[in-house]
Specification:
The structure is a homodimer of 192-residue chains. Chain A is 44% helix and 18% strand. Chain A has 192 residues and is of the alpha/beta class. A seven-stranded parallel sheet of chain A has the order 5-4-1-8-6-9-7. In chain A, strands 2-3 form a two-stranded antiparallel sheet. Chain A starts with 8 loop residues before the first strand and ends with a helix.
Chain lengths: 192, 192
C-alpha cells in the first residue's frame, strides 16, 4: 500500500561532462556497481526513474544488457530484489535527451537540480527542495561521477543543492553514498 | 577546526556470522570497494574507527595490504583523499576481538548497536540513539554483509537500531548505502 506513495523524482548519473582528478573535462566509465547500488537506493525511496547518462554507445549497451539480464534473463529468477530495483533504470546519451524523455513521459519539463561538494550563490537548502517536492513538480536530480559535474551543468541547472555537510572539512563522499544520503534527506523525511 | 568535533562512534563491518540468500550462516567475502566507500563515509562523519571483521586470515591480509598501499605506498601520493579516509580503518578477527581492541583504546566497553532491515522488540529509534551519542558513551555500530547479521549477533547486542524506512516495502539497501544513511541520521543531525 505504502508503495503507492510515489514522488515525481528522477535521478541522472552523469558520465560526461565531469572532471577528473586533474580538473580536466572527461567521460568517466560506467561502473556496474553504481547501477546496482543506485537502483536499489532509488527503489527504496520510490524514485520514478534513474537514468544512466553516457555518450559512449558501448557503455550504454553494457548497461542495457545488464538491465536485460536482471529483468528478463536468468538473473530475474536468481535475484528478484535486484530485478525489482532495476525496473526504473534507463539509459540515455546526454542530459538534453534525458530531459526530453522526461517531458515525453511526464508531460512537463522537470526542474533540474545539480549536486556537488561545493556551495554556490544559487545553492538551495535541503529544506527548500523538500518543500518544492511536496508541491509535486517533477524534479531531475543530477549527480556527477569522477570528480564531479562540469561547471556548465551547474550553470545550466535550475538549482544547485547544498553540499552534504559532514563533520569537519572532508568532502569526498562516493557518489553512491551521496545519493543515498540525499534521497534519505529529501524523501524519507517527508514521510515522517 | 570543525574536524576536532569527533564523536566516540565506531563501526564494524561483519563478514561472519551473516546470512546468505538461502538463510544459511556463512562467511561472506570482503569487498574492497566496501572498504573504500565505508572509510570515506566514516571519515566524512568523523567516526573514530572502522573495523573490517572477518575470520579469514587471507582476507584480513588483503585488507591490511590495501590499507598499507594507500597509507604508505604509491597510493598515498596518487590519491591523498583515499589515504585520509583509510586512517581510521582497522582489521579484526571477530566481534569479541573488536570490542577488546576498543576497550584497550577507549578505556571502557562500548555499547553495541546492531543494524538490519527488520524491527525487533528491543529496537531503538534513531532519535533515541542520537541522544545516547550526545551523552558521549562509546558506541560500536554493527553492520552485516551478505543478507544481514546472524540472529546471535542481534541477540547479544545491547540494542538493535530501527531499520531505515524508505517509501514502501522494499528493504534491500546495499550495506554501503545503509551505513551512509545511518551515519548521516545519527551524526550530521547532531551538528545542525
Amino acid at each position: 500500500m505504502a508503495d503507492k506513495i510515489k514522488s515525481d523524482i528522477h535521478l541522472a548519473l552523469i558520465h560526461y561532462p565531469v572532471y577528473n582528478k586533474k580538473g580536466e573535462t572527461v567521460t568517466s566509465s560506467v561502473t556496474t556497481l553504481d547501477v546496482h547500488d543506485i537502483s536499489r537506493v532509488a527503489r527504496t525511496f520510490a524514485v520514478s526513474s534513474f537514468y544512466v547518462v553516457t555518450p559512449l554507445k558501448t557503455q550504454r549497451q553494457l548497461v542495457e544488457r545488464l538491465i536485460e539480464h536482471w529483468l528478463a534473463g536468468y538473473g530475474a529468477e536468481y535475484n528478484p530484489t535486484r530485478k525489482e530495483a532495476l525496473l526504473a533504470t534507463r539509459v540515455t546519451n546526454n542530459l538534453k535527451d534525458t530531459v526530453s524523455d522526461l517531458i515525453r513521459r511526464c508531460g512537463q519539463k522537470p526542474m533540474t537540480v545539480a549536486t556537488g561538494a561545493k556551495r554556490f550563490p544559487k545553492s538551495i537548502e535541503f529544506r527548500c527542495l523538500r518543500e518544492k517536492i511536496r508541491r509535486g513538480k517533477p524534479i531531475l536530480l543530477l549527480f556527477g561521477t569522477g570528480w564531479g559535474l562540469e561547471k556548465s551543468i551547474l550553470n545550466e541547472a535550475d538549482y544547485v543543492l547544498d553540499p552534504i555537510d559532514g563533520i569537519g572539512q572532508y568532502n569526498h563522499l562516493p557518489v553512491r553514498a551521496a545519493i543515498a544520503i540525499i534521497l534519505d534527506r529529501l524523501l524519507a523525511r517527508v514521510k515522517k
